[in-house]
């Protein structure tokens, strides 16, 4: 019984560690300024999503639980999440968590970017 409990706790710790937001420091070890992050993460004036930036943030914050191809791993399949939830609802889930997903896996502009990108998945 102790062995099962230990394995469960070890697995839970592994999952929680893998779902972390990751280090945002650049190559020089300095964290990018908020202005730099905003410039990198914004789409064009038509309101489109910067797909490359969104995919990069997804890799840091979400991929370990939702899979590299969005098909799900520990977390649910996100390939058609935009047909189920609006961007605002997806943002709320990212910020506040839902079910087994802890809150704050991505925050601020990163969470907004990921939610806009995922909302396009229909």
Please, could you describe this protein's structure?
- By secondary structure, the chain is mostly helical.
- It has a domain of 75 residues: Cytochrome c-like domain (Cytochrome Bc1 Complex, Chain D, domain 2).
- The chain is 51% helix and 0% strand.
- Helix 3 packs across helix 6 and helix 5 crosses helix 6.
- The longest helix is centred in the N-terminal third of the chain and has 17 residues.
- The N and C termini lie far apart (44 Å).
- About 18% of the residues have low confidence.
CATH architect. name of the domain at 48-122: Orthogonal Bundle
Order of secondary-structure elements: HHHHHH
Shape: globular
In this structure, how is the largest beta sheet organized? Answer: none
Alpha-beta content class = mainly alpha
At the fold tier of CATH, the topology name of the domain at 48-122 is Cytochrome Bc1 Complex, Chain D, domain 2
**What is the tally of beta strands?**
0
Please, what is the CATH homologous superfamily of the domain at 48-122?
Cytochrome c-like domain
Helix run count = 6
Question: Helix coverage percent of residues?
Answer: 40-55%
Average pLDDT rating: 78
Distance between the termini: 44 Å
- Per CATH, the class of the domain at 48-122 reads Mainly Alpha
Q: Into which percentage range does the β-strand content fall?
A: under 5%
Residue ranges: pLDDT <50 for 5 or more in a row? Answer: 21-28, 33-46
């Amino acid at each position: 019984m102790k062995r099962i409990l230990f394995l469960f706790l070890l697995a839970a710790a592994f999952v929680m560690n893998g779902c972390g937001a990751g280090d945002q420091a650049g190559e020089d070890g300095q964290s990018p300024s908020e202005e730099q992050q905003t410039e990198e993460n914004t789409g064009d004036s038509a309101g489109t999503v910067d797909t490359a930036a969104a995919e990069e943030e997804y890799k840091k914050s979400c991929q370990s639980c939702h899979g590299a191809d969005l098909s799900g791993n520990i977390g649910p399949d996100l390939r058609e999440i935009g047909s189920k939830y609006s961007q605002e609802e997806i943002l709320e889930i990212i910020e506040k968590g839902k079910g087994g997903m802890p809150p704050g896996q991505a925050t601020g502009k990163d969470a907004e970017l990921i939610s806009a990108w995922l909302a396009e998945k229909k």
